[in-house]
């Protein structure tokens, strides 16, 4: 998601201390409405960077990848930002989806290796062993401007941004630090090179893409 320098600067006083990853809980899940995600981890290369969808994965340091079949092209959403929603309804508590126009939507899931992903448009196919629940949205409180996005699963320890570039540089792929996560599971092959991230949830007005690719 793209944000102005002034908006990001306004968040800095709110980020003096990052909150710990939420523990697994059976408490009711709040619905988020459409939100974009901004990674935070002070004094790290990912701090205040947007979390973007591309290639059915989530990234920091890659542009959003989207598609729209409508003609003329001017009738399409911009498709340059990544927008998601956390669902807190009784039928699907703790699930999350891409906020898109395409019929059927695109569900968000956690692969068996911890990688955060989403389904292809027009398909409900989810990888074997993937997890589709445990997503959380915490509304802003105590004067905070933004809420937070997280994952609450037994044995999990928050979200990670794992380097995929040379010498453990970006772009960074987003993983969930699931129970028994191994070096061989993550991009870059070393969990200790991943950066713990605490995503802010920035509200948006409407879907930004027809579908994400």
Describe it:
This protein has one helix at 5-11; strands spanning 35-39, 49-50, 52-54, 57-60, 66-67, 84-87, 95-98, 106-110, 116-118, 135-138, 147-151, 159-163, 172-176, 195-197, 200-203, 211-212. Strand 6 (84-87) and strand 7 form a beta hairpin. The protein is mainly beta and 213 residues long. The chain has a five-stranded antiparallel β-sheet, with no helix packed on it. It contains one helix and 16 strands.
What's the short version?
The protein has one helix at 5-11, and strands spanning 35-39, 49-50, 52-54, 57-60, 66-67, 84-87, 95-98, 106-110, 116-118, 135-138, 147-151, 159-163, 172-176, 195-197, 200-203, 211-212. The protein is mainly β.
Number of helices: 1
Structural class: mainly beta
The coarse overall form would be: globular
Rounded to an integer in angstroms, the radius of gyration calculated over CA atoms is: 16 Å
Average pLDDT works out at: 88
In this structure, how is the largest beta sheet organized?
Answer: 5 strands, antiparallel
Task: Record the SSE blueprint.
Elements: H1 5-11, E1 35-39, E2 49-50, E3 52-54, E4 57-60, E5 66-67, E6 84-87, E7 95-98, E8 106-110, E9 116-118, E10 135-138, E11 147-151, E12 159-163, E13 172-176, E14 195-197, E15 200-203, E16 211-212
Antiparallel strand pairs: 1-2, 1-15, 3-4, 4-13, 5-16, 6-7, 7-8, 8-9, 10-11, 11-15, 12-13, 12-14
Keywords:
213 residues; globular
């Amino acid at each position: 998601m793209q944000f102005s320098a002034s908006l990001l600067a306004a968040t800095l006083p709110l980020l003096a201390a990052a909150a710990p990853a939420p523990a697994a809980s059976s408490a009711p899940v709040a619905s988020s409405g459409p939100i974009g995600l901004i990674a935070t981890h002070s004094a790290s290369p990912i701090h205040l960077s947007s979390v973007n969808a591309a290639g059915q994965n989530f990234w920091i340091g890659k542009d959003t990848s989207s598609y729209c079949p409508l003609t003329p092209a001017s009738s399409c959403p911009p498709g340059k930002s990544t927008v998601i929603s956390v669902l807190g309804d009784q039928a699907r508590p703790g699930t999350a989806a891409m906020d898109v126009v395409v019929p059927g939507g695109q569900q968000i899931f956690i692969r068996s290796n911890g990688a955060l992903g989403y389904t292809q448009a027009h398909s409900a196919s989810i990888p074997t062993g993937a997890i589709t629940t445990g997503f959380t949205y915490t509304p802003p409180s105590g004067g905070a401007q933004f809420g937070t996005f997280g994952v609450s699963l037994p044995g999990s320890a928050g979200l990670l941004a794992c380097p995929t570039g040379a010498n453990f540089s970006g772009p960074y792929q987003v993983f969930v630090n699931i129970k028994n996560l191994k070096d061989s599971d993550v991009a870059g092959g070393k969990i200790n090179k991943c950066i713990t991230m605490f995503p802010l949830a920035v509200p948006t007005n409407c879907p930004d893409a027809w579908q994400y690719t």
